[in-house]
Amino acid sequence: MVSAKKGAAKPASPQKNNKRKVASSKDVTSKKVKVAAGKGNKKAAKPSSDDSEEDDESWAYGAMSGSDSEVEEQDDEFVSAEEGSDIEVGALDDDFLGDEFAGSDEEGKTAMFGSDDEQEGEGEEDEEDIFASDSEESDDDDDMEAKSRKLDAAKLAEAEEAEAELQTNIMLENDKYVLPGDDHEILQSTDLQVVQARIQEIVRVLNNFREMREGNRSRNDYISQLLKDLCLYYGYNDYLMEKLFYIFPVSEAIEFFEANEVPRPITIRTNTLKTRRRELAQSLINRGVNLDPVGKWSKVGLQVFDSPVPIGATPEYLAGHYMLQAASSFLPVMALAPQEHERVLDMASAPGGKSTYIAALLKNTGMVFANDANKDRTKSLVANIHRLGVKNAVVCNYDGREFPGVIGGFDRVLLDAPCSGTGVISKDASVKTNKSEQDFQMLSQLQKQLILAAIDSVDASSKTGGYIVYSTCSVTVDENEDVVNYALKKRPNVKLVSTGLDFGKEGFTRFREKVFHPSISLTRRYYPHMHNMDGFYVAKFKKVSNKIPKKNEDTADPDEEEEFTPITEDSGKRSRGAKKAKAAAEKPEEAEKISFNADEDEELIRASQAKLLQTQKGIKLRPKKTAASSKD
Amino acid sequence: MDVSGVLEAHKQKFKSIAVEGKLIPVQYDLGLLAAFDENPVDTAELNRNKDEYLQALSRDNAQLLFNEIFQLQTISDDNGVMAMLPTPTTLLPREKPLPKPKPETRWEKFAKAKGIVNRKKERMVYDDASGEYKPRWGYKAINDDGTKDWIIEVPAGANPMEDQYGARREAKKERIDKNDKRRQRNMEEAAVATKMDQKAVNKGDRPNMDNVRSMKRREIENQILISKSSTASAGKFDASIKGDLKPKGIKRQFESTITDMSKEKAGNMSILDRVVGKNGEDLVNVRKAIKSTKSRH
Amino acid sequence: MRPLTEVETKTFFEKLAKYIGRNITHLIDRGDDTYCFRLHRDRVYYVSESVMRKATSVGRDQLISLGICFGKFTKTGKFRMHVTCLDYIAQYAKHKVWIKPNGEMPFLYGNHVVKAHIGRVTEDTPEHQGVIVYSMTDVPLGFGVTARSTSDTRKMEPTAIVVFHQADIGEYLRQEDTLF
User: Fold this and answer.
1) Distance between CA atoms of residues C178 and C180, nearest Å
2) Average confidence (pLDDT) over A40-47
3) Does C165 share its domain with C131?
4) Which pTM value belongs to this model?
5) What are the start and end residues of every segment in region (Disordered) (chain B) (predicted)?
6) Which of A119, A444, A526, B174 places its Cα 20 to 30 Å from the Cα of A55?
């Protein structure tokens, strides 16, 4: 009978321990194991029944206790023999330890029980592996032979893995990579180099899946393994990893994650209200700053390679000749392209990089409303506005959603929406772990409300303007295309127009189970690994009229919200079909004549959609739709 | 030495002090240093050259006035020679407007309504006892409302031990107090009346009693508020009583945010002129100069 | 937000006149647009009329800033100029001081200007005159008050203070929390 007891212990002689060990290991079936963790207090350990599962548990405790906690066991038999005396035992287990060490090395065992870290570590690793493989199959643990066999198998597997690792370089293209099996615990324990190697292998397999797959393993097996490894290697939480992973093709995703580990180059924007880029560059070069124009796409950006002085505290900076600003945040303002004498609203403006850029483009004519919901952040906003010599700005502190209520009728509105920041992980790595599903839901809801407010704040009858630019520093689809799609749906009086930016990837028109409006391909995405700037998204709307066309009751079939809840593949297909039907049925007379099967007519539908897009009219919802066609 | 030539030359420079050609003699009121010339004006001459004619006319009349003044009796003292002016004979119009009629007291109004006319009583009356005149009232009055009677009959039914002299003194004091209250009331009513619409006063309306009361209340409230804030902490830490008066804050009146910009600009300019002008710099208004040269070209 | 009262305007102009004198007229009466001074939470803002009119739609608690802030009234009713108005007063300043590159950073850290750092000075600057401090590349760095007249400065030691620091553009970093 074995039980663990804690408290100040009298050191027991090794001999006694051994003896007890052996005895207990022989008496496995009738043993009672009590395990208690912690040091100070004497806790009554709970007696466990002698079934194998409990046994496993006690094992686990024993294995862990080897590293930090002390577990003492007290043999009932001994209690009866030497009453009241506590016997200290390190991490102990009955059968396995007895079996493993009793025969081999007594000193090793005592060392393991004791405080010798090195030995303990070794022992622990072995133990863990064995335990891991053991726990999978929950059959008779008491069978020592089976145990040792398992141990051997595990050792073999490890050796194989090590060999595979060595061979990575010389592996031929057609060599098949063997997935390491289902034993996740083994995978967790391996070090990062191994993980990296495995990631590379799996990527290689996925890139040429048909030829390189291993037997009957499905793609999902590989991907789930890859996701786990990526989480481990780059330190993302599972939810975010999955979200980001599916945005890219496999190898590109790895590039993306890799790019997130490297900081982006420092860029500055010349304040054209006070100086010119050439002059600024000259004066900064005189200070020993090494810089270059940021690219052909911007006439005001400068990229700083290195600087002997802090770039955010030079006299030129303080005099407002430039602004420290990420290259990506030039984009929404360039897309907005404000014209002189216009009234522009920046809905979420702190710390003012974009607002001051707008003012610079307006050349201090017209006016800029710089709003930010966070009062603390408005301080830096006001400071920057004054420093850069912006004279036509009004700074206010509203929730952006209040906006058309406060003041509307703007010529242009820039909405750089608050977002999860998945595009700027290189700047703020905390995003990797602290964003949960709720965060994303809340953010995208907020973004949807904000974009409607932004659209409503614009005056469509403005002579020069009537534009809205929506941007985020996030790469996820539900903060970008999904929001834009929602806006198009809720406000049929806007249409997407070209952002005017000649680079960047097109926005997704379909993503996994979601299908978006085809005009969303006019929006632009920017990635760290592709454009060497923060991950970014820019969409530009033109407001066509100030009236929000009302939808008919007929079309209000599926609830508005329902369209944006995640849908299964099946229902997705159906809604896709329905949408196609809608799109095709733009001309009512056509729709009335023809009842059609969406799947059959897919080619035709696509062609007609492309045609519509070419005419730049945007997709308007049909004013009235017959029940028949909507059901189709 | 013959100075007659010089004198002659000197004489030539001045006109004669004798003025002739006045058909109607000029009237004088030397007390007011005034002369009145009633001769008709030569209109033909006036029309021809107005300034010279008027100048000559005033010179002649002024000369006549001076001649008259020099005729007066003179005295000589430290300040020089003075002429004694006679009392003025001409009545001058009043400089200040006529005083407003005083609001009537209650008695005056009552007396007017009843036709009671004040009968003048002499201040001094003959005292038979001492055989001399004594004031009717006030200090050393002849018989101060019966308080100086040498004997007083005890009224019927009165306590014989009661001090009748004391009772009379008390009665007198009460009468004085009563009169004083009435006087005060009359003054208050008069104060309200002067604030009232002038039309009502002219009509002779008496002030409304309500007005008087509310005015009195306001005065008292003001005094309470002043006394409440007359502590070391300006009333900040004093215990407040329920239903107590609350001092009304000073309500500052600002101009509205959107104003007539040209007016605001002009106001700012005038303030600027005061501010900068004080320093005495920029005597030339450069802005104005530039503007004027611009407009000329 | 409201217009300044007469007393406030006077206090404000008196301070402003130390730097730009009569040139305040160019601020009040501009050729291009109608501009005005508005007081919001003790701070004086210089803003065009059209912007001000639009800003009236913003609530008092939500309005943070409009146009350019010239400074603020202290609790004792004095006016304190902020570095934010540098653009305007540099434009109309009468007296200027240029400092050498080695004097730039000390001034931007809030120190007074010593004689050794002076590059150039406007002739005939009197004592206690408001001056704008420029770098040698004609970038306005801040403003201050002369300790001595230009002629007296010639006799002074290199370490003597010539211009007392009033405000500098380093305050954008140093006093971001209190300035706005």
Assistant:
1) 6
2) 41
3) yes
4) 0.59
5) 166-210
6) A119
